[in-house]
Amino acid sequence: MRFGLEDRAAGWDMNAVITEGYERVVWVFRCVELIAGHASRLPFRIGRDLDGDNKEILEDHPLYRVMNKRANPLETGRQFRKRLSAQVLLSKRGAFVEVTKSRAGTITRLDLLPPDRVLPVPDPHGDYISHFEFVQRDGGLRKIPPERIRWIRDPHPTDPFCGITPLEAAGVSVELDHLSRLYNVSFIKNDGRPGGIVAVDADVLDDDEMERIEGKFAPGAQHAGQIKVIGVGPGGMNYVDVATRPRDMAYEHASQNAKQEILSAFGIGESVLGNAAGRTFDNAEQELYNFWTEVMLPHLDLIASAFDQDVDEEWDPFIDTSSVEVLELPRRRKREEARQEWQAGLRSIDEYRPLADLEPLDNAYSRALWISPSKAPVPARPEDAEALGLHGPGGSPVGSQGQPGGGPEGGMPPEGGPGTPAPGGTAADAVAEARGETNTGAGSAAEAVAQARQEAGGGQPGEAAAAVQQARQGTGGGQPGEAAAAVQQAHNQTETKAAPGGIEVKAVDPPQPPGVVEYDPGEDELRRAEIAIAGALDALLVPCPGRLIM
User: Fold this and answer.
1) 45: helix, coil or strand?
2) What share of the chain is helix, strand, coil (3-state, %, to 5)?
3) Is 319 helix (H, G, I), strand (E, B) or coil?
4) Calpha distance 326→269 (Å, rounded)
5) What is the spatial distance between Cα 9 and Cα 160, in angstroms, rounded to a whole number?
6) Would the pTM of this model clear 0.90, i.e. be above it?
7) d(C-alpha 520, C-alpha 249), whole Å
8) Chain segment 163-217, per-residue pLDDT in tens
């Protein structure tokens, strides 16, 4: 069974790709170095639930040592992975990694085989790969079983035995850039074109003079740019500028197009290579973000997924990109949006913290929604209401929705509830209704006072009444004295007058002239009054069984 043209990559000359592309064309070299350098710098990891909330990273694995530390006796893990990335980008056949394991099945080393000396042999029975044939340096042929080879390639759409490379699409541009530079170098070496020519009348010049003039156009870069003098026919002298020719402009245009096509094939913007001229900061940042998301992440996944068979089923190998700052751009935007939602009361603190790689606090305050603008808490659980202080007397919630002060309409009391005036009623009606609701069940305040008086002494005069009566007798048996005369005098000084509109007002006469002595009851009379008041208060405030104290 044939799965495709297994010899499609047979004509791919890796030596020509390296010498004429990678080593000669600056844009190819820079693109390959940029991608391979980033891929080798990032650590290799193994984890599970990588895109979920319960992400877990494996602490230790044999692949960590060979991928991050020492791949083989000759190469470190970083050197090995840089060469691996470069071969994936440059080789149409892909890259071949030979895995060596111990007797216990532990990976001990990784070796990168030259792709131009490895041939995958299809299985005639339909198992794709029968084995790999590797031509050693001494010319010997070694057959390697497929379970020992990790074949890493960007898959071809029709041929499973072949990969694809950016150089295949940009091959013409790479060759054009290389040949254009060779032509320009050769032209500069062999051309002594002056910067300008002065033409003179040569009718009177002999052969020796003409040879001397022609000698001034000797080839070589050291003569370029000089002004030359030559002879012409009768007519005097003229000047010709030869510094810039259409041929020069054509080379510049071709070189610029070749550069753009090569960079586009690799998916790299010019600002990523270090030249951000003519771009804003936002445009340069977006080019860098596009490079990492559209070029680097697929490339890294292609390499890491080749080692799936070397880890357990529930674990996945990956290249850790958590240290790449530009990849934090969408996460920063997501956190900013989450902070705005928290400010608006649409998200709790515990819902925000995982986005910032923080553990939830898991208490009533962090679980609640804080509604703007007054930041009123809305409990997420019924048991959180008491911790937030949203329970009234008796343990009932303050609001119907857990909000302080009322129901769902921003703290307003529910329609038809207590204190809601009847349609068309007045404030006085509302007050009367509230008083009536307050007095129902427990009795009025007057009834409670009457009951307290009966319990205190059967309604008969007690010590307080006797003290008051004694105080009255001490002032003269209740007859009008100097204080009563002063009060009567104040009443006499008021005069009732009619104001406009039928309203009666009282006018007070001016105070008496100086010399009028105010009434002084004396210390004995004040002392008796204090004793009477204290006795009355004691009688009222002494607690009795079943007595209601107002």
Assistant:
1) strand
2) 45, 15, 40
3) strand
4) 15
5) 11
6) no
7) 120
8) 999 998 998 898 888 888 877 777 767 665 555 666 656 666 677 876 776 666 5
